[in-house]
Amino acid sequence: MPKHFTLYSAALFCLGSFSTWAQEFKPAQVDSLLNSLVANKKMMGSLAVSHDGKELYSRAFGYTQTDGATTIPAAATTRYRVGSISKVFTATMIFQLIEEKKLTLETPLATFFPQLPNAQTITIDHLLSHHSGLHNFTNDAAYKGYMTQPQTRAQMLARMADMKPDFEPGTKAAYSNTNFVLLGYIVEDLTKMPYAKALEKRVVNKIGLKNTYYGGKITPRKQEALPYEASDGVWKLAPETDMSIPGGAGSVVSTPTDLNHFLEALFGGQLVSAASLEAMKTVRDGYGRGLLKRTLGDRVSYGHGGAIDEFRSDMFYFPAEKLTLAITANAQSYPVSEVARAARWSYFGQPYALPHFEASTYVPAAADLDRYVGTYANPKVPLKITMTRDGNTLKSQGTGQSVLTMEALRKDVYKFDRAGIVVVFDANKPSFMLKQGGVETEFVKE
């Protein structure tokens, strides 16, 4: 999955089952994790937790800017690009327009952009739920060649019109930024104003968000965080996507506190009707209409994740518990999902083991590496994991995913910090235990 304003998950998969827990936020273990992340140069960002509209926890960690002599510590008001979380803002405005009778879920894409493939059969519903079949333009090799340069709507539409569809509309689902860039254009056409102004009028001002807007060139003196990537143990400034490109798919800048308030307002009936919210929550083939449904044992949450350049973000709302949590990061070599999990578990009273980031000096034996090589599966998990050897290095690849270089900790134990993965091979049989997100799953060699 490309890392440009897509729904981000570096994890191989996430499963889980948990019992009922107490509900009292304990910040000490979250503070310990954030301190460790900063000290080991694993993440910089901001986290906020709210219950029933009352903020329980807010902490910025790391730096907004850290370039040579210029160092600006992050603050609670530091603004971050939030990538695909923007899709929830866009979906909210689309449902407002539906309530205003300006379109329906069945309105064909051809009403606005007849030049796009399958425009007569693609509907607003298909775009919202990633059922359109329109190819994700950020997956194209050409994307990296123009991502940092200003683009016009005409240029973007021309590219989208030239892309071959991935499947027939409505037959299945596949995540595509193309869908929400188009929905952003539709918001502009129906409101007769730029997306930035529509966002301000229909969401930001309506519920009193203080640090949320359509992004532009990043300016640290305006409390905007710069993106950084890990390079030889230091943070190196990373490229910025030009914000003329992502539009309704990934243009929003915000803070965790604002994101929490947005979710509370959305679920509190301040932005759309109960019927519209129910439609946004309804999941088909893994996707709602702008919202994603995620479970934590018997607890259900709704929200979205985001990634653009080196920024990562995630937000959750648990309706039954009235718990809201959001995290933003401008640098990370450790998953934001793990930090969010630590915060959730702290609230629900579940123990959380702090990760260990010390570099290992262990060199695996060649015979062990050869023993690990192969393809592993679990009948209850919809992916296989292939282990390969590259010299003294073990590499892992899940079905349809990128190759991960595993770090050897000790005999039969490997990790991949960026996804919070630990793999423990069985010395007596051809299998391994994959530990991720507090869940252990056995994979057996085929």
Distance between the terminal alpha carbons, to the nearest Å? Answer: 26 Å
Low-pLDDT stretches = 1-22
Number of strands: 21
Strand sequence of the main sheet, in spatial order?
14-15-16-17-18-19-20-21
Q: Fill in the CATH topology of the largest domain.
A: Beta-lactamase
- Estimated radius of gyration: 22 Å
* CATH level-4 homologous superfamily of the largest domain: DD-peptidase/beta-lactamase superfamily
Q: Determine the structural class based on helices, strands and strand pairing.
A: alpha+beta
Assign a percent range to the helix content: 25-40%
CATH architecture grouping of the largest domain: 3-Layer(aba) Sandwich
| Share of β-strand residues | 25-35%
Total number of helices: 11
Number of structural units classed as domains: 2
Q: CATH first level of the largest domain: which class?
A: Alpha Beta
Q: pLDDT average, as an integer?
A: 91
GO molecular function, one term: hydrolase activity
Signal peptide: 1-22
Pfam family, one: Beta-lactamase
Keywords: Hydrolase, Signal
